[in-house]
């Protein structure tokens, strides 16, 4: 079952028809001459308009497939995914802001959008066009604005449904009240359903500056109007076309003769303006790295000792840093592709390792918590699993889970519902709400039983007594930013015995330590500009800290795990190799990490939908 957020996102785009100006504006042009760049570069000019776009773009890039459908590059697919994403409000969403500017008479407002629009249109143009009937509607009477014989232009991109039955759903048009349904005979509809953030009903996107003629206007029932439209070709290009380059400028692409034969008919069938195909030199293949070569593992050179301290446990393991973890991992959960089977995971985000070799996994996009015994091929659902929703027996994209031994219950960060739940292990039918109205991401419990929760909306971490809804701020105190008293999208957290809070300050690309009662934090890892050098991090997520203050970081954007000694100015890579991959010695956007009492390292391999264990070598 689709969540309310998923339904609202698509409904807002489909219902956007009421904002069309229905008057002739200047053509949309200029963007077609912009360079084709990565999504990250394409959104930079827009950050003053939509500050959260940087984070949404990162998520969209992660959501995009390694080899997207329809021959799109990863950046082109991610640009379409980004368009489909809903912000904190409709007004803060990219699609809403872009479409508002496309409807504006002032074409100069479009200039900051040129890089993004070029990438977005490049992706749309690669999608095949087909003549079909699509549907769009709004809960208002628009019949007086659309008379039979009228010719007009919809200047914004138009989201439509391929299913009339879908619009009859109460979440969309419904069957009562004032409604206007547009049935559209289109030639240029683009099926973007394989490149959207929320995959619900099949969504067809009509290009900006599409021109239509009203064929008929009917009122089959009181208050219900049907307006039949036919797409027609304008006499001039109202949306200037983009040039398609068979080899992408944004990431390497291997093109075979068969690929070209499959790609060109799709490109030629496109009617987004007049398509131009630019021929490139024939050397369009790229050499692939030899996956059979073993990964070189960076070893820790010193012989100093440190201690691993398990959360909420008195079990402390002494090992020396002469020890090393195995070069290749064993998959202990998932690993059978993305899915909802009991042997599968779907973009897991959090993990808790219990002392008895049981792991609890926040199986995020399956909206459930899974318990997995080491050595078993399948897991057991212990919370959620009833589809995405906000009922007390449902979860919506849980991102973290910890075990509260005192009550034998799971504490769950139910991110999509903006709440923290306690879910008893004995009676697994439903949970109870501990904290509401919080954009939670990370959880931790200290040795005194206090609960710590990170809030990505308020950019802070709070401490709670379990069972109480009012907490005390312990990290982040001055809003979003990169000063020492600020955080920028805090995700995973760790609390040591002194109640110092370590925070993965994700979009500042650093890990911060906030000592108890401190007014500002200390940078303990990263903190310079984003990068993959030993002194840099890229979107750090999971963290773990041993008793000597050594910090272990899941360096998500660099697909590696880093170790930073207490006071060090740079880290050392212990797992991964800065390259995304599916092999046993590689990771894809590692999201979280933990250790068992034997020193084995567990990593949530988000992009590969699996949990990896790198064993400690004696």
UniProtKB/TrEMBL annotation:
NHL repeats: 480-517
GO molecular-function terms, A-Z: NAD+-protein-arginine ADP-ribosyltransferase activity; nucleotidyltransferase activity; zinc ion binding
Reactions mediated catalytically: L-arginyl-[protein] + NAD(+) = N(omega)-(ADP-D-ribosyl)-L-arginyl-[protein] + nicotinamide + H(+)
InterPro entries in the record: 6-blade_b-propeller_TolB-like (IPR011042), ART (IPR000768), NHL_repeat (IPR001258), TRIM-NHL_E3_ligases (IPR050952)
Family matches, as PROSITE patterns: NHL (PS51125), TR_MART (PS51996)
Family statement: Belongs to the Arg-specific ADP-ribosyltransferase family.
Full protein name: NAD(P)(+)--arginine ADP-ribosyltransferase
């Amino acid at each position: 079952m689709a969540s309310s957020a998923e339904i609202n996102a698509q409904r807002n785009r489909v219902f956007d028809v009421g904002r069309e100006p229905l008057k002739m504006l200047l053509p949309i042009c200029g963007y077609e001459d912009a360079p084709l760049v990565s999504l990250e570069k394409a959104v930079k000019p827009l950050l003053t308009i939509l500050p959260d776009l940087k984070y949404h773009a990162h998520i969209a890039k992660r959501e995009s497939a390694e080899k997207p459908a329809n021959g799109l590059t990863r950046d082109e697919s991610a640009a379409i995914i980004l368009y489909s994403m809903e912000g904190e409000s409709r007004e803060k969403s990219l699609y809403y802001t872009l479409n508002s500017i496309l409807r504006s008479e002032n074409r100069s407002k479009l200039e900051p959008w040129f890089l993004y629009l070029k990438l977005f249109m490049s992706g749309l143009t690669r999608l095949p066009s087909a003549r079909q009937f699509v549907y769009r509607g709004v809960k208002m009477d628009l019949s007086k604005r659309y008379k039979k014989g009228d010719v007009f232009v919809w200047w914004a991109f138009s989201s439509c449904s391929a299913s009339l039955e879908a619009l009859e759903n109460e979440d969309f048009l419904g069957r009562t009240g004032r409604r206007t349904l547009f049935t559209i005979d289109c030639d240029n509809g683009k099926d973007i359903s394989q490149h959207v953030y929320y995959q619900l009903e099949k969504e067809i996107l009509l290009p900006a500056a599409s021109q239509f003629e009203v064929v008929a206007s009917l009122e089959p029932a009181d208050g219900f109007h049907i307006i039949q439209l036919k797409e027609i070709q304008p006499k001039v290009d109202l949306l200037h076309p983009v040039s398609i380059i068979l080899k992408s400028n944004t990431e390497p692409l291997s093109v075979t003769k068969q690929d070209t034969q499959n790609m060109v008919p799709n490109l030629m069938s496109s009617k987004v303006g007049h398509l131009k195909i630019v021929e490139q030199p024939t050397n369009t293949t790229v050499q692939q790295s030899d996956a059979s070569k073993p990964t070189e593992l960076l070893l820790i050179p010193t012989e100093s000792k440190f201690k691993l301290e398990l959360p909420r446990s008195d079990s402390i393991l002494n090992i020396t840093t002469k020890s090393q973890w195995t070069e290749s991992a064993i998959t202990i959960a998932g690993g059978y592709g993305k899915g909802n089977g009991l042997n599968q995971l779907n973009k897991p985000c959090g993990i808790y390792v219990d002392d008895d070799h049981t792991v609890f996994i926040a199986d995020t996009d399956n909206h459930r918590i899974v318990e997995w015994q080491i050595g078993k091929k399948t897991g057991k659902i212990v919370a959620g699993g009833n589809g995405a929703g906000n009922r007390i027996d449902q979860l919506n994209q849980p991102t973290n889970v910890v075990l509260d031994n005192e009550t034998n219950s799971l504490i769950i960060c139910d991110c999509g519902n903006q709440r923290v739940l306690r879910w008893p292990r004995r009676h697994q039918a439903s949970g109870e709400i501990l904290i509401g109205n919080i954009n939670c991401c990370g959880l931790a419990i200290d040795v005194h039983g206090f609960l710590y929760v990170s809030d990505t909306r308020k950019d802070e971490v709070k401490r709670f007594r379990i069972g109480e809804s009012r907490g005390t701020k312990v990290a982040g105190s001055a809003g979003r930013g990169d000063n020492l008293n600020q955080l920028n999208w805090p995700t995973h957290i760790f609390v040591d015995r002194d109640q110092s809070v370590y925070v993965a300050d994700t979009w500042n690309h650093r890990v911060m330590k906030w000592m108890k009662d401190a007014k500002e934090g200390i940078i303990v890892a990263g903190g310079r500009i984003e990068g993959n050098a030993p002194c840099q991090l890229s979107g750090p997520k999971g963290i773990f800290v041993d008793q000597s203050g050594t910090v272990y970081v899941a360096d998500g954007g660099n697909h590696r795990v880093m170790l930073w000694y207490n006071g060090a100015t740079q880290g050392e890579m212990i797992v991964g190799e800065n390259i995304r991959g599916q092999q046993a010695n590689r990771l894809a956007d590692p999201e979280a990490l933990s250790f068992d009492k034997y020193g084995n390292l567990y990593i949530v391999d988000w992009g590969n939908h699996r949990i990896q264990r790198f064993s400690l070598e004696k």
